[in-house]
Each structure stands twice: as C-alpha cells, then as structure tokens.
Design goal:
Number of helices: 2
Radius of gyration: 28 Å
CATH architecture of the largest domain: Sandwich
Strand content: 35-45%
CATH superfamily of the largest domain: Macroglobulin (MG2) domain
Number of strands: 17
Structural class: alpha+beta
Shape: globular
Order of helices and strands: HHEEEEEEEEEEEEEEEEE
C-alpha cells in the first residue's frame, strides 16, 4: 500500500475516533480542562489588578516606580532634603495645601513626630531647622512632582550613635485626648483593608482655625514605620477624614488641629483588620 493511502486511512481513523468520543461522552475533546483553568486564572488576575488600581488612587504607598529620588540628611540642627528625577535634574513641585513640601519625620519607636515645611535653598535642595535628639528616625518627603511618578518611601536618618528600635503598638481605649486645654475625641472607627474608613473627630464645641488650607491634617504611619498616609478633611467645613489602608496591622495616627495660632497634635492608635 502506498504512503498516500496510509495517510488517508490514518486521517479517517482519527476522525472516527473523535466522533465516537464525542457521541459517547458528549464533550468536545478540543476543550481541555487546562484551557478552562488558564482562562479562569487570567480573569482573577485582571480582577485583582482592577481592585489594586482603584485602591491605589487613595493611598500614598502605591507600587509604582518612582521617577523622583529623595535623600535626607541631618547636620547640626538642620535637616537637608535632596531631590533628583530619573534624568538627574531637580523636579518641579506643585503647591499642595500651601506648601511645596510636607516633610514628616518620626522616630522608630513612634514617640517623636515632626511635621515640617522645608524651604528651597537651591534647585533640588530643601532645608529646615529642627533640633533632633539622638536616635533613629524615618523621614517621609510628601511632595507632588510636576509630570513625574512619585512614591513616598521612608528615608532612614540616624542622629548620633544611639539607635532606636521599632516597637509593637498596643491597642488603646483612650479615645479622648487633651492638649493645652483643647479636647479632641476620635469616635469609634472600624478599620478594614480596602474600605473607606471615616475618622471622625469630635472637637467638643470648638472650631479649629484653618491650617494649611484645611480644618486639620491627619498623618498615619504603621508600626513598621513603612506605610505612610496623609489625609485631609472630607470637606472644607468638617473634621471627618476618610482614610484608606492597603495592609492590615497596627497604625499610629497624629491628628493636627490649630487653636489660637498653635498647632496641637493628638496621637491615637488603631488596628486595621484584613
């Protein structure tokens, strides 16, 4: 028998086997389980990407490749911040809440907190005077570069030789704090990852002064001093702040309100559930 006839008979045989399989099982043999599984995995991945993107719109620590790099140093009572974009040039900064730069510095044990506004000394270099005790700090350079992707990340700063260890935060039940005769209460907050978490501050009949274009500012840092969140009021006439958390864990809140020309800082600790 010629090769051509052998090939023809083989094709006929294969077709008959496929038809028989389809009649007996009712399944299409070309639709394998592997193909179905790959399709489902792809859909789940796309769904996760969409959720992440939505959440990132509200959170400072979104995972993008930063085009602006920061370097923070301290020398003799002065903090220096150097900025450089991916081309080596000094980035242009937008004004956000009356300042080009909001500079947050906290000690590793979360006991020391500074909200500073460095001034430009030259292109790409900012500085601010601030005496710091010996210890280890994390500095967060809160800026909005013009037309540049930027991700806020902690800049470690060691002052002196005594290192400060990070701590494990404990839940607290004292939600009313008094600072220089002004009392503020953080109402019960149920914080869950991915949800909008209203942080509602009761001012006990007081109305705070406008501070940097708002009735207050809230800064939140996790106990590992890595996650940074800066939240402004939900509207011009409220002391409610809507926060978003991308990771569970213990967080420290510093709520800043201005009374009689003095900025008062109220610390709280909350736990964010998964």
């Amino acid at each position: 028998m010629s090769i051509k006839k052998w090939v023809s008979l083989s094709i006929v045989y294969v077709v008959l086997v496929i038809l028989a399989y389809s009649l007996i099982t009712g399944n299409n043999p070309f639709q394998s389980g592997k193909l179905d599984n790959n399709h489902e995995t792809s859909e789940v991945y796309k769904e996760e990407e969409t959720m992440d993107h939505s959440e990132h719109n509200h959170h400072h620590n979104h995972q993008v490749e930063s085009e602006v790099h920061t370097n923070v140093t301290y020398n003799d009572g002065k903090v220096f911040i150097e900025l450089e974009d991916h081309t080596g040039a000094a980035p242009e900064l937008a004004i956000e809440h009356e300042a080009e730069m909001h500079f947050i510095m906290v000690s590793n044990d979360l006991e020391k907190y500074y909200h500073l506004h460095p001034e430009k000394e030259q292109e790409g270099t900012y500085a601010v005077s601030q005496d710091l005790n010996d210890g280890t700090y994390q500095a967060f350079v809160d800026i909005t570069p013009e037309n540049k992707a930027y991700q806020i990340a902690p800049n470690p700063v060691q002052v002196g030789t005594n290192e400060t260890d990070k701590v494990r935060l404990e839940s607290e039940d004292k939600w009313t704090k008094e600072v220089d005769g002004k009392t503020v209460t953080l109402e019960d907050a149920h914080a869950t990852v991915g949800d909008e978490v209203p942080l509602v501050f009761d001012m006990h009949g007081e109305t705070p002064d406008s501070y940097l274009g708002a009735l207050g500012h809230v800064v939140i840092v996790d106990e590992d001093v890595e996650q940074y969140i800066h939240v402004h009021p939900a509207s011009d006439d409220t002391t409610t702040f809507n926060a978003h958390f991308s990771q569970p864990g213990m967080y420290k809140i510093w709520a800043e309100f201005k009374f009689d020309d003095n900025v008062h800082v109220y610390p709280f600790i909350i736990e964010v559930q998964a």
